[in-house]
Hints:
This protein is α/β, with parallel strands linked by helices.
Amino acid sequence: xxxxxxxxxxxxxxxxxxxxxxxxxxxxxxxxxxxxxxxxxxxxxxxxxxxxxxxxxxxxxxxxxxxxxxxxxxxxxxxxxxxxxxxxxxxxxxxxxxxxxxxxxxxxxxxxxxxxxxxxxxxxxxxxxxxxxxxxxxxxxxxxxxxxxxxxxxxxxxxxxxxxxxxxxxxxxxxxxxxxxxxxxxxxxxxxxxxxxxxxxxxxxxxxxxxxxxxxxxxxxxxxxxxxxxxxxxxxxxx
Length: 239
């Protein structure tokens, strides 16, 4: 699928939150920021962070896909999608953009998020791809054949889930840097069976979270064109 580009708008404010951010409190802060953006009282924002181990249930979550309900805390959230995992080693990116100024086109916005992830992965020579009927960004694993048919396995490396309120976006994307991949076994991620999950480090890449954040900053204006490069000062907030 060829995705249209998003129209120009102002550059968002970038923040990297240190440590493991509690989920409920962060969600409340994000919703408050979205309300401020919608009211014209705050600029758009992109937050980069990690959470402690937890599962989230989107609006389409099937209870049967929560295979270990007692393993980690489960949070019901209003974003689209099904069950996802968040935890240390996964870069969560909350994207609060005003689509009133960028064009009220949800498909275009989701495509831009996908392109952002794919372009970021390409900086590390990873070919991220879309798959019809499967949400997120996927990589083909020639080194790991599918046990069912012997074809190369396809593993998910990034998830996308968004919500809009008054045409301001929130939630966003998550990219697996180096999480404990076994933690995903407590759910059927995004309701998709017969496929695995992977990460940058699992693919054999000695990439730091710092490297990933800089790649995200570099690629953002390409996915959302005609925007200034994300503030390089984010690098000083990372450590």
